[in-house]
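Tutorial, part two.
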Amino acid sequence: MKIIKLNATHSTNSYMKELLRENLLSDHTVVLAEQQTSGRGQMGASWFSKQGQSLTFSVFKDFKGLAAEYHFIISMAVSIAIYDALNNLNIPNLSVKWPNDIMSAKKKIGGILIENVLKGSNVQYSIIGIGLNVNLISFPDLPQASSLKLESGREFILDEVLQEVLKSLTKSLENLSVVDFVEKKKLFEDRLFRKDVISVFEDQKGFRFNGIIKGVSDLGELLVETENEKIQKYQLKEVKLIY
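Running the prediction step on this input gives:
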């Protein structure tokens, strides 16, 4: 695995795209930045990080024969990998908040941004951006954020956390085109934040309602059982979980 270390960059995903234009990437190449000045999350959201206390990196994964209709298996595999790596580091109360926020109890400790490039009906490759709050202890104006240090009560060596995550990620993404989708989806659903618990949701119009997360569809939509026992499907940004 080739690791490219940068002192600073605007976004490791964007930097990786620049390398791609020059054909300088091989499978599992990692771009790691000590400081990311314009980190991005889902749907254009920003990602807060601090030099020397966070891990911000991107992984290039080349796929062959992975059907685009099952692209959500990539997101599930990455989420499971990070969950398992942090579990090996004894981070407590782990879960995955749909679609792919990494949680400890009710606090967000990590985020994922995956950008897929298609060729015909297949996923050609993915750029997998990962941000982990490792030793941060302060999050200005982010009351639902936390870090590995705050949740576990101990300091971490950044490189050791990185190696644990990369090892887990390599294993989880191996031969993904022939992995049993149903089995991977069950592993993901078993890790879902507030699954099978009555929760409050808010739709795009600001209407709040009670529902129970039952899982995800094959396309990655959130499945919520509403008060009339009907299962509703929601795409990203169509519904917000209030917690």
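The first helix runs from residue 12 to 21. In part three we will examine how such features are distributed along the chain.
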